Amino acid sequence: MADLDSIVDDLRAEGDALDTLVAGLTEDQWATLTPAPGWTVAHQIAHLSWTDNVAERTTSGASGDATAVAEFDGVLKAAWSDPAGFVDSAAAEEAGNSDLLALWRARRHAMTDALKRVPSGVKIPWFGPPMSAASMATARLMETWAHGQDVADALGITREPTERIEAVAHIGVRTRDFAYVINQQTPPSEPFRVELTSPLGELWTWGPGDAAQRVTGSAADFCLLVTQRAHPENLDIEAVGPDAQHWLTIAQAFAGPPGPGRPKR
Questions:
Q1: How far apart are alpha carbons 238 and 216 in whole angstroms?
Q2: 179-205 b/e with 16+ CB inside 10 Å = b?
Q3: How far is CA 195 from CA 72, 161, 242, in A?
Q4: If the chain, 265 residues long, is cut into consecutive pieces of 10 residues, what is the mean pLDDT of each piece?
Q5: pTM for this prediction
Q6: Using CA atoms, how far apart are residues 29 and 32, in angstroms rounded to an integer?
Q7: C or N: which end of the chain has fewer Cβ atoms within 10 Å?
Q8: What gap in Å lies between CA 175 and CA 165, rounded to an integer?
Q9: Do 236 and 220 touch, CB atoms closer than 8 A?
Q10: Gyration radius from the chain CA atoms
């Protein structure tokens, strides 16, 4: 993957692209239901705003801000008290904020600034294992892109994919074993080969070239697959080998329990 500066720049660009999508929405459009059950466009932006703020707090804490450390610890305690509902509760609480867009702008910019201040080699605490600043930026880019897809689908807008989705694809590949574990299954012992065609026609690859289990196709569609924003059978993705074929049915790049996915069109 690219270095921290490049990933943070892509994260900023992804946030700006979604900002442009929602900046001119009417009140009714903000209330449009998205494919996520019970979530409106406002809920989607509220979720990103809340999570970006939490990411900034723990990132600033990793750089030595004691107040930020305490605030993140408080968030962790609240999350563990309601592990199944804290995400929905936070989105619902902030969705009605009259200054939601301005708040999200301030929070995401603060987060990207904080990511660039993390000392080299320092790990950032999170809801799962601690991660590097580059990994945190990549994860935030993935989530911004995925929830941006929910917003675009709700508004009937077709987004043109950019090369920024390489970060999403990378997480999708790296979380292969996580998808098995979260579904209470044993991950395959052998690595897979993944070959994806980028929006500009580049070939992105992961894994050994001679692997028996292979996944190939469109990078944009693979990103929709691993973020569970489309049904596997509606995507330009092919798998060779039974293990690779099964992975496509459970692939999950995001943290938390397995999602229901999207119905087949």
A1: 5
A2: bbeeeeeeebeeebbbbbbbeeeeebe
A3: 38, 17, 17
A4: 88 98 97 96 98 98 98 95 90 94 98 97 95 97 98 97 97 96 96 98 98 98 97 96 97 88 88
A5: 0.95
A6: 5
A7: C
A8: 15
A9: no
A10: 18
How does strand 193-197 pair with strand 214-218?
Answer: parallel
Sequence-ordered list of residues with C-beta below 8 angstroms from that of 203, at least 6 positions apart, any chain: 195, 196, 197
Of the candidates 55, 63, 49, 56, which has an alpha carbon nearest to the alpha carbon of residue 19? 49
Determine the residue type at 190: E
The two three-digit tokens of residue 131, written as one number: 């991660």
- DSSP secondary structure, 213-235, as one string: SEEEEEHHHHHHHHTTSS-GGGS
Interacting residues of 233 by C-beta distance below 8 A, sequence separation 6+: 264
